[in-house]
Amino acid sequence: MSEIQKNLAGIQQRIRRACEAAGRSPEDVTLIAVSKTKPVSAIREVMQEGICDFGENRPQELRDKYEQLPPGLSWHMIGHLQRNKIKYIIDKVCMIHSVDTVELAEDISAQAVKRGLVIPVLLEVNMAGEESKFGLRPEETEAFARTVSVLPGIHVRGLMTIAPYVEDPEENRVYFRRMKELSIDIARKNIDNVDMIDLSMGMTGDFETAIEEGATFVRVGTGIFGERDYSGR
Ligand SMILES: *Cc1c(COP(=O)(O)O)cnc(C)c1O
Q1: Which residue ranges have their beta carbon within 6 Å of ligand 1?
Q2: Cys-Cys link to 100, which of 58, 124, 130, 217 (CB 3.0-4.6 A)?
């Protein structure tokens, strides 16, 4: 087993334990291996262990890796997406986690329709109100969901948040809990074409807390692949 494979096994075990502690089934939580900045060789090591879900935050990087790796993987666009870059990924992703403007939703819709696709999307919510982060304010999320619900070619499947970087994951529990509550509130409104099935929340530092609060996707990069080196970008 390689270092990366050992890391992965450790993360998977912690996910199982968190599910057990929360009385949830491990099948209800999908691990997305966040492979941004990492080479395809590292992705292959993770694939060998049966992982199919990978997350990238740059469209061109997602496209390049998609083209170098076998079909059958599920690629998640998890980063801020500029409208002029949708074309690189529209036919390659299984889900876009980061929809936070009507213009972006409209452009994804138009390009999906052109290709005969329906793209599952999540609405990105800035739960902690951090200035530096993208995302909707919690209180505008329902109205936003209504607005984009009428667009063809996209299907709203839930919410995504990037919690603050903290030393102690307990500090983020409140944001995960509020996000779950927000998704329940929106689900109760029975908006056509809006489902609140998925909650994408939790990263290397706080995924267990996110699972306890209802995450269906956790996005783990460093914990699997090791530290990222941004010096060459
Ligand atoms: C990089 C990234 C992650 C993974 O972060 P780690 O702390 O390395 O696990 C998760 N979600 C998003 C949106 C990211 O950009």
Answers
A1: 34, 36, 57, 78-79, 162, 203-205, 219-223
A2: 124
pTM: 0.97
Q: What residues make up the domain containing 67? A: 3-225
Is 35 within the bounds of a domain? Answer: yes
Which whole-number Å values give the CA distances from 226 to 28, 51, 153, in the listed order?
Answer: 25, 17, 36
Residue nearest to atom 7 of ligand 1 (CA): 204
What CA–CA distance (Å, rounded) separates 202 from 208? 7
Q: For ligand 1, what atom is nearest to the CA of residue 97?
A: 13
* Residue closest to 98 by CA, chosen among 53, 56, 61, 38: 56
The rounded Å distance from CA 172 to ligand 1 centre is 15
The secondary structure of residue 98, as a DSSP letter, is E
CA angle 18, 220, 95 (to 5 degrees): 105
Given a cut of 70, whether residue 232 has pLDDT beyond it is: no
- Whether 66 is covered by a domain: the verdict is yes
- Classify residue 41: in a domain, yes or no: yes
Specify the number of domains making up the chain.
1
**The one-letter amino acid at 190:** N
Q: Which helix (H) or strand (E) holds 69?
A: none
pLDDT tens digits for range 159-209: 999 999 999 999 999 999 999 999 999 999 999 999 999 999 999 999 999
